[in-house]
Design goal:
The protein is α/β, with parallel strands linked by helices and 328 residues long. The protein has a domain of 214 residues: Rossmann fold (3-Layer(aba) Sandwich), CATH 3.40.50.720. It contains 11 helices and 12 strands. The protein has a 7-stranded parallel beta sheet, sandwiched between helices. Strand 5, helix 4 and strand 6 form a beta-alpha-beta unit. The radius of gyration is 19 Å and the shape is globular. The relative contact order is 0.14.
Length: 328
């Protein structure tokens, strides 16, 4: 039974492909440009673009299960055109290809960012509505719109399951991801200051285990939130300092002050050719609902996220072993 993974070169894709190989499953990996994360693996690799519908029919032909991971991620407010083309139209194309090619099951990776976070004093679960207002960042809206495309496919008879993880960290983070960049900056002593607030972080390996169990056990049309552990930025920096021995930044800016300075910091990072980490979008994300419930996934998929410190230690070790940093 051939399994197709879109976005196979991404963080989740790199871990998922390896987990599928460990189970001896024939795997076809679709990547867009870079294939570093899957180089040398015993899989079928195909370069392609989910924005090109006609090309997907040959790629999807013969696949019984599709994991749709391909997506563009942005922390900027002016990124809607690209996010729409990849996360919305690209997902629409994937749904159409699955229906046309007779794919037995589609597993779509969304995000808790696609859900309305308010009211924040009530735990976030699968019943929350999707964001629609333009007050939300483009990435959030694009993932919500992508979910709607999958739901339309379900209405047309597609067997699909939607998985919504929180912020993902973990090994095989080749790019690295946004949170991977934060961990590297902390571990190398290059983050001058912190911002108040926090985020729910989940291990990429737990996400992969969750989605693979959903493939086997979830009823058609099901949706699951895969959360981990909420941690403040200050607590995260302290954990990284404990693991690496590199002192954590002592300055913590309140979010209101960080928001005022975010446009300047973002512009400065872009001028230096660096990926902006502190943007108006990322600072807003630090105020998201801190109580994301994975109760349904635990009950139906036996999902249990591992301790955060274990994730941080394993991630930093992977970064060290692969030349991203030097931990003494």
């Amino acid at each position: 039974m051939t399994v197709l993974v879109t976005g196979a070169n991404g963080h989740v894709g790199a871990n998922l492909v390896r987990a599928l190989l460990a189970q001896g499953r024939p795997t076809r990996a679709l990547f867009h440009v870079n294939r570093q994360a899957i180089e040398g693996l015993d899989i079928e690799t195909i370069q392609g673009d989910i924005r090109d519908l006609e090309s997907l029919y040959n790629i999807f032909d013969g696949a019984e299960v599709v994991y749709h991971l391909a997506a563009d991620i942005s922390l900027l407010m002016n990124s809607w055109p690209l996010l729409k083309s990849v996360n919305v139209i690209g997902t629409r194309n994937v749904v159409e290809a699955c229906l046309r090619c007779g794919v037995h099951r589609l597993i779509y990776i969304s995000s808790v960012s696609a859900l309305v976070q308010e009211p924040k004093h009530i735990p976030l679960d699968e019943s929350r509505p999707l964001v629609e207002s333009h007050d939300y960042p483009p990435y959030d809206r694009s993932k919500a719109a992508g979910e709607k495309e999958v739901s339309k496919g379900i209405q047309r008879g597609l067997d699909a399951v939607i998985i919504s993880p929180t912020a993902i960290i973990g090994p095989y983070d080749y790019k690295p991801s946004y949170f991977g960049e934060v961990l590297l900056a902390l571990a190398c002593g290059k983050l001058p200051a912190l911002v108040s607030g926090g985020s729910d972080l989940v291990d990429v390996r737990d996400v992969v285990e969750g989605v693979m169990r959903a493939e086997k056990k979830a009823p058609p049309g099901a949706k699951y939130l895969l959360s981990g552990h909420w941690v403040s930025v200050r607590e995260l920096a302290a954990m990284v300092a404990e693991i690496t021995g590199v002192s954590a930044p002592s300055v913590v800016f309140p979010k209101w002050l960080a928001r005022l300075g975010a446009p300047v910091v973002t512009a400065f990072d872009r001028l230096r050719g660096r990926q902006p980490l502190y943007t108006t979008v990322s600072i807003k994300a630090l105020s998201a609902n801190r109580n994301v419930s994975h109760e349904r996934a635990t009950r139906e998929l036996d999902y249990h996220p591992r301790p955060l410190r274990e994730t941080l230690s394993d991630t930093l070790q992977w970064f060290e072993e692969n030349g991203y940093l030097d931990i003494n």
